[in-house]
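Quick one - inputs below.
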Amino acid sequence: MKPKNTSGESTLLSTVILIGVAMIIGIGMLSYITAVTSDYRAQVNLVNTLKSEATSIFINVVLYDNSTSTLWLLFKRLDGSATSYLVIVEAGGYYLDCSNILFYNPLVDSDGVLCNEDNECMSAYVVYSGSMKGILVPYGGIISDFESYAKSKGIALSSSVQVCRVINTCLLTQQGGLCEKSTMVRINLQEKTTPVRIHVAVEYSGRIYVVSSYEVL
Amino acid sequence: MKCCNMRGQSNILLAAIFVAVFVLLLVPLTLYIYYSSLSTPPLISLESRVLNTKVTRGEIVAVYDEYSQTILVLNNSGSDLDVEDLVVQFTCSETTSLISLGKTGLEKTKIFSGSSLLINLYQALSNACSNPQVNTIYIITREGIVIAARIVYPSELSTELPPGSPSTPQPITSAVIMVPVGVNPGDNITTIQYLLLKGFEIYTLDNMYQPTMLQPYDNLDRGMSGGVGGRYIWRLDKVYENTSIKIDNQVVRNIWLGYDPKNTSNYNIIITADKITIATPSYSKNTYVRVKIFGFKPLTQQGILALSNTWVTRPSEDIANYTFLTTSSTTTRLTLNGTAERVEIYVRSAGEESGYDPYIFFMNTNGVAQSAGIFFTTIDRIWGFSDSRNEGIDVLLDYSRSPLALVYSSFSISNSEYSAVVISVNYRFHDNEGNDAEGTSVDRPIFFVGLVDENSFIYSYRSFNFRELTRYEDTYPPTAQAQSTLIFIPLPDPSSGVKIFYVFIAIQDPYSYNTGNYLDDIDFTLFIESLVIIPVKG
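Output:
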């Protein structure tokens, strides 16, 4: 009877061990795949956001007035949303402070003349001020930082840059509905200087990504 | 033992199969998923885009006339152009600024392919300074496209003679069109205040017969009166907006029919009648009425309106064509059915004075879009003779108490720049005096055209008197021939002082009834088709 008992116990034991091992491997596998897929999903969301922002923001030049070193731009969202714009402006090798980027508020304008009344043209708000490394850029298939991107593209480097929020005209003038209006933006340049680069950025999960760049030659 | 050894071996075999299945299926599957997709998520790459400072489209052309301060936008692009804004860069005493016209009703303006739009910048620019120099104009479309307009200067329009010509006459600079007045689709042309937005200022004359200066027009609700003895006026009784309108077989005295300059597939109509019943909107009045219909769109296939079963299919350039429809021997009944942007019904009522709105009408008879002639009529009923009452009844005689003087202030003429001014006027006139000049005891001016200086003193003018005008019309059968005049006014030499002049036109009905006989009871129709200023360089 004894040997029979021993063999039965070992069978039971090996079965338990096998099931245990299978479960450990299974759970490990499951948690690994879950982690990998959620990471993947986060990256897909990021890429989608950057893609849609890159394609839905459109900038056009209205006029570049050499005499007053003023650049008037037209910002437009093609997706009809009233989200504001984030920009980094570089002119003649220097990055402009947000105080030099003004957006026009038609509600305050009583005579049609742009920027001649109080609060008619307000400075853009600072959303980030600091190192270029703190700004990310999807470039060359990876997420790089703005400083590395600037180095590779021959764009000016600076120890500190400001990311500025330009309020969408639709937020000021329109209540709900699809936004069709363009936002008039005035950029005060320090001197007669070209090219002027306008880098359009997006805020995602607390990080700032540059999604497109415009160059005024 | 044999059986138990066998069982142990089968357990090992089972475990081996289990591990083999696990390794052969799950591990490659996991690796496949990992390497095929997860390791390389799709990433966009930032791209630089280059913008030119001059973004133009050749097929959309905008021309700015600095004299009349109007911009003409021609859309030959093949698709409709949605204008979102118009931005003007200008200089005021060496300061450069920008002005946006987006808030002035221009927003959501559509310029259809193949058509043009005339935009007057005078009002917007007058907010900036008195003499702005326009540098550049940008049209911003709804798609965000920026179109730079070309600015035309007078020197570009002047013609140069080939070298070697025996003499070089001074070139005439560009013609400035005062009338027809530009009309935008959003304009309200139902009142004379519309002219204030088109570069005009409204004044009156100090004297109806020998004016020497212009005076402010204090109250636009005054200026016209009527009747003999007691005063009668046209009082606005009812206004319908965006309404259906249906008139069935109503006896009418006169109709003036023109194109609606806002949309020339519609019509502007004035109807006068001794009484009227309108089917839709329901309205009935058993006294003299004037009905002004703006933006009439007929629903009838046969034509615009029917006069005793004869359909009228287009406005006549002879503005008197549909006057005196009902006489002692003929009765004409009007039928029309359609929609209208606005219907104003005036009734004859006892009252001291009215403004010019019941008498003035903006329309054209040639179907040119966005241009309005100035139409004025005091005729309400029927003609008469020197021995009878012209309207047939006292209460319908109309006359001016203050002339309506329109100054085109958006074009200033300086004697330092020009030596003379030529003013061209095209007009039509029709009166209700069967004996023409013999129906008057005195010859009085119907309208004046001339120059006024910056201090409101009239420098020079040409008056158009009744006895002259009545020679070129026939009261009945009604005919108003096209008449035209060129007025040449030399400017004073700048050595006597630099002065600024403006062109004005003053309109009035100077004839109130002469008691004791049947003379001077004239009512008339005047249509200013065009008034063009041609400054001459000296």
